[in-house]
Amino acid sequence: MQGVITPTQYARSPAGCEGFQARLMGQRLKEKDKHMNGPARFWVLALSLTGMVISMSGCNQLEARDQLNKGVDAYKSAHYDEAIEHFQKATELDPSLPMAKTYLATALSQNVVPQMDTPENLKNANQAIDIFKQVLSEKPNDINSMKQIAGIYYEIKNINEAKDWQKKVLAVDPKDPDAAYWIGMIDWTKAHENKLQALQDAGLNDDGKGNVKAPKKIMEPLAKENAPLVEEGLKYLTMAVDNRPNYDEAMQMLNLIYRNKADVDYGNAAAVSQDLAMAQDWTSKAMDMRKQNEAKKNAGPGGITMDSSGQLQ
């Protein structure tokens, strides 16, 4: 409608909060100056300035929300640097604005290149992490910030910190299937890397079946090193499937970690055989579940719903 402006437009216009307050204060002083002594004029000025500060705070809040909305639009368009600028302005204008810091840290995390440990990349990662930690200082149980921090640490190859932060998620929500999955996946990654390194040093390749033909001097130390990782990985991956029965990625990871368990059970033929049978069983379950999940997704609108934890219904 012609002649009507939004609160944000008003706040940003020359005749908005700043100009209006300045003119109002001057007008009040001119009207009362003729009839007041020095002390009275002082208190009028003080009260006028107080009102101006309060009103300016309101203007900042309006402008902050405008910047936040612009940042969201830029982020959706994958213009992350532009989004960062808007979110930074929003947090400066109104530090108490809900989600502003979270959005800023999320946008910053988009500039983190996975598996790259250059100084610039680590700087971007740590900046995002620091802001998420600021959010947690105000909202200690904010699971989203914990998961974001864990994800960034994983991207920069600090998997120990990544696992620790996923455990913090589970301390708040013990039934979070994704946090449990990531812990198990990280345990498998470390155990698998240990195995490949040990076999490579001996000029051998992983056969994926317990490496029963590898020498004891290689496999027995490896079994001792990997046993805690395999035990923990099995625990958390089982937890992930228990809390999300259609979690096909976790099922496939159980296949892989049971193959690591076969390495740990080196020298016990019966245990190795059982481990490989479990691995194959989880592979079959993962394939079947993936087909079911894809069928639900392809059913179109109304054929599938998803709860807050990402479980298909």
Distance between the termini: 46 Å
Query: What sort of overall outline do the alpha carbons produce when their principal axes are compared?
Result: elongated
Number of helices: 12
What oligomeric assembly is this protein in?
A: single chain
Q: Please provide the count of β strands.
A: 0
- Give helix and strand order, one letter per element, not per position: HHHHHHHHHHHH
Structural class: mainly alpha
What does the radius of gyration come to?
29 Å
Strand residue percentage:
under 5%
* Mean pLDDT level: 82
List the keywords.
313 residues, mainly alpha, 0% strand, elongated, disordered C terminus
Quick overview:
This protein has 313 residues and is mainly alpha-helical. It has helices at 7-12, 17-33, 38-76, 80-93, 100-109, 119-138, 143-155, 159-172, 177-201, 216-243, 248-264, 269-297. The chain has a domain at 180-298 and 308-313.
Explain what this protein looks like in three dimensions:
By secondary structure, the protein is mainly alpha-helical. It has a domain at 180-298 and 308-313. It has twelve helices and no strands. The protein has helices spanning 7-12, 17-33, 38-76, 80-93, 100-109, 119-138, 143-155, 159-172, 177-201, 216-243, 248-264, 269-297. The longest helix is centred in the N-terminal third of the chain and has 39 residues, at 38-76. The protein is elongated. The relative contact order is 0.06.
